[in-house]
Design brief:
555 residues, alpha/beta, TIM Barrel, 3 domains, nine-stranded mixed β-sheet, seven-stranded mixed β-sheet, globular
Length: 555
Amino acid sequence: MPGGDDTALHRLRASSALLEPPDLLLSGVRVLNVFSGQTAPRDVGVTSGRIAWLALPGEVPRRIRNTEQLDLSGRLAVPGLIEPHAHAELIYGPLALAAAAGEHGTTTLCCDMLTFTAVLDDDELLRLQQGCEAAPVRMLWALRASAEGGGDVAQRLSATRLIALLERLPSIISVGEMTAWRDLVDGDSRLGAIVRAARCRRMRVNGHAPGASQRSLQRIAVSGVSDDHEATTAAEAMLRLDNGFWVMVRHSSLRPDARRILAGLLDSERPLTRVMLTTDGPVAADLVNGHLDIVVREAIAAGIGAVDAIRMATINPATYLGLDGYIGSLSPGRYADIAIVSDLENFSVESVLVGGRPPASPPNYPPGLQGRELVEAGLTAAQLRELLDRAPAARLDGLLTRALESRRAGDAIAALVARDGSWIVVMSIANLELDALASSYSGTGDILLIGQDLDLVAECYHRMMRSGAGIATPRRFLPLPLLGSLSLLSVSDLAAIIHELSADIHLRAGDIPFEFLLLFLGLGVLPDRRLTPGGVLEVKSGKILAAPTRLAPNR
């Protein structure tokens, strides 16, 4: 992002000095100044995608006004919104997220890289990020250093590799959420080396510390972590602020907490200059309806003044990322990333400009980003029954998988099968009612099987393996060609198909969102028991309760 080439900078300087016309004149727009908190009518000159000057309407000479003009008389312009903590891999891909978020006023995304780093080699990562430079909005990246559960993912996140990526990929702006913070504070040498390398480059290190105590937060801060987005109450947010963290107030599909947390912060009379807003990971059905604009409205509904609410989604994250000289405000030298809104209080986004232009249509991904090859195992329903009879048991409680002593009749199977068909890990799940599915989208990148009907589960597995990466339910199939785990569909098209998949497996409307059910069963950071490539993991103790069972390939 920073700054453009010498030619662009020379043209920007000449335009700022009124020596030549800007590329584009935005005339008569009412501009919010996030520094003063005031709005005022201005003409805005845009050159090389950046703001060259702001002036009273009609103030600049006629010869300077002799350029392309966009008449925004009476319209209200605020800085484009900045998402400091995005997940671009909730079955949709990064370009689909960029297009959907851009429609709702978000003009910069900082996206977690774990899914991509775990599957792609370094040259492929570079091609992906170069391809995303033509996305509808600005795309920055957070390089995740921690991955729980072992297997291929952990092996691919060596300190040597990740530090080299920090140097090689210019769009990496921070280190992604430190889910393994306990290892970091206990002196893990790999994580420590990555954090030191990031801080030497003046990069932020994102936190992930749900329920952390005062003492833990202090140890996390000492270890180099800059922020946290896991506060679920105002008291937790205040504890983080008081210990020097930046706080991302989350309003996501899973944790729509923003209004309650911000109301508490308002009552505490604490400054909001180190508070940001995040959507974290919205599922497709929610993203269709809005992005950060929803969180801004939630902040206003909590009693936060409209200007402060907008600051938390613009200049605050820009300052946090060290990019406030380029984004986050409508002032000279900054990119002309603009959301045109109805008014400050209702904050309905009417149109968006990125670099002074309407967002571009999303490009195609570079070729060759299919991910690891799928190899079908010779897996039968009889094998699944045998494995389930001796598998560790758990009960689904929201996103948590609570330990059970034994399996009960009718409990579902949850299994992880290696992409190369070489092993399977199985546990039983109570309180999960669905027929059957097989998915190459999972928290580990392996194949996830879930269901109560084991004959249908086996059938879905083999149909998916023969059709290619995707999600197979008894009567539906969603291809996932990108990395073997992500769709190429738009967010709105994907939301419609996920609704069909959920209906096909009889997943109840009040249950966990479909995407998170697939993602979190293999994510080794939530209690109590999780599927990992290393076996069924007891999260708190780190003990493997059941090792993988070897499988033979299907002949």
